[in-house]
Amino acid sequence: MAGTDRDKLMPLFEAPGKMNRKLKTDMKGQRFAKKQRFFRPNDLIAVMAEKDMLPAIFFTFSRKDCDKHLEFTQTLKLLTPAERKLLNKKVDDYVALNPFLEGNQSLPYIRNGFASHHAGLLPAMKHLVEILFQQGLIKVVFATETLAAGINMPARSTVITKISKRTNDGHRILTASEFLQMSGRAGRRGMDQVGYVIIVSSQYEGALEAATLASSPPDPLNSQFTPTYGMVLNLLQKHTLEQSEFLVRQSFAQFTSGRRLRPLEESKAHHEEELQELLNFKCPYDVADKDFHGYLRAKDLIHDTARFVRILQKQLKQHGDSPEIHKQLQHEQGKLNNLRATVDNSPCQQCHLLRKHQRIEERIQREQRKLKVVNRMMSEQHDTYWRQFVNIYNLLRESGYLDEDDKPTRRGELTAQLRSENEYALAEVLLAQGVLDDLRAPQFATVLSAMLNDSNRENLFVKFRLSADAVQTLQKIDLLFKRVDKLQHKHQVDVPITLNPVASGLVESWAQGCTWERLIASTNIGEGDIVRQLRRTADVLRQISRLSELPNAITHTAKEALKQIYREPIKEIELPEENDLIEQQAEAPEVPELQPEQPKGQPDVPPVESEGNREREAGLSNVVPFQSPELG
């Protein structure tokens, strides 16, 4: 593992866990701050080539930086003539099988042995990069961190261009697990005895932060499990409510919540110990807690009551003898006398441990408040997943999706077959009369895509305007979703409701036969994001086309819409014969990829990869909070 100041490579550690002393002068990167305003990878790549450290993956945290770094490689020539000839042949063969890639701006860089890999690229282009990188024909790939999970691209070296990134919660240092995922790419099994990890210093993070991160243990494994409408309905189809509770409580998520309970349990034990020690205080006069609290309360009230008595006396002098004021003064004076008697007659008034007893009582009350908070947090943590399940269950019962025996009704059975962000909201739209019934296939795909588009990227534009039918339907859905949102709020169900038509104009135009070149020229949305959105739409269209509980008109329209949008480059890429293109090196034989079995009774369209590994990294993964769409 090495750090770099962009001029030279230096080992990060001189011994296991011991940071290189030569780097300690650069604890925050200030030594190189003037040089490091923007990272230019050319020099580093040249050094790595000299030291036989390629192929390499350069990890960065934005698509824009990936493409910007790629531009700096134009002057680099790392391929041998034989490699360049073989590379050009493979690219030509691939493009011949996928002609929509002809003229793609990434191809000149690929032919030079360099590439980007991020969610904004076409899946077919990313697949080509993966194949060529595996064969060693691409020397450097600039990738976002999501490449580190689930894609077979072994490298001799990985370069982490930054160890901090911007998130929805602000700028932060990478977690140990994020760093481990990226650094773990270094070293090809069966080919490299040593894998290299290079960390680039910056004006914000230097060697100390890098060494701390590199020597940190991995973060604990956490479950992303959360109850959904589909899960609740599918469980109740085969199990009772009691059996479902047992299964939810046996989940790995519940197990990891037990791990999160341990700090709370330790805190509870600490507060209970403190409280018990405070309660062991022995009052010299054996005054009961109730009487001691009364004494302290009387002392506190004497000052305020005496002040009020003085105010009433002053008012009598100013305004004469008023019966109302006089009556109130007598009442307050009697109250003041009683308070003074309580204080004077209490043995606490003469006790030499009064102040100590008073401080202990205040601490007792603080510890009791803290214990109450910890107990509430423990209760919430212990039952969090089952409580979410019950909230969804109650909503479905009220909506008629579950019968009196807790079994799904016809509406519930339909919803159980759906897979989307919010199955209940989608089912409400599909089952509502007069919403989707009269739509033509392109408009059907259009409004459906708006319910599936969870993009939260800013400053997106699309030149295509929606048709009047699509706009009117989205307005109806917006009203329906507001009712769903209100019902979810009532039952404390936190499942996102999405209605985001920013890309719907693209879907409608594509379904009407628009060419891919014209489509991408009309928007600043990345090609990969468009493909992902269309594939997600196609996936749900295929689900809808199979639902026998829906009217034939809707399932037929869904099937027609699916056929209209599922064409190149949305359909799965065409793979050539193995011997023609995928010639793996002998040391790293190809592992065949399992393909899902083709389901029976589906439309005459190839299967849609809506949530495959290559789409998981797309920049549309954050859920959009529910809001009315801007229509027109």
Features:
single chain, two-stranded antiparallel ribbon, 632 residues, Sec63 N-terminal domain-like fold, Rossmann fold, alpha/beta, disordered C terminus
Draw up the topology in text.
Elements: E1 2-4, E2 9-11, E3 13-15, E4 18-19, H1 42-50, E5 56-60, H2 63-71, H3 81-97, H4 107-111, E6 114-117, H5 123-134, E7 140-144, E8 157-160, E9 164-167, E10 170-173, H6 176-183, E11 196-200, H7 207-214, H8 229-238, H9 241-249, H10 252-279, H11 289-319, H12 323-345, H13 354-382, H14 384-399, H15 410-416, H16 423-431, H17 441-452, H18 468-490, H19 504-511, H20 516-521, H21 527-545, H22 552-565, H23 578-581, H24 613-616
Parallel strand pairs: 1-11, 5-7, 5-8, 6-7, 8-11
Antiparallel strand pairs: 1-2, 3-4, 9-10
Helix pairs in contact: 8-15, 10-13, 11-12, 15-16, 17-18, 17-19, 17-21, 17-22, 21-22
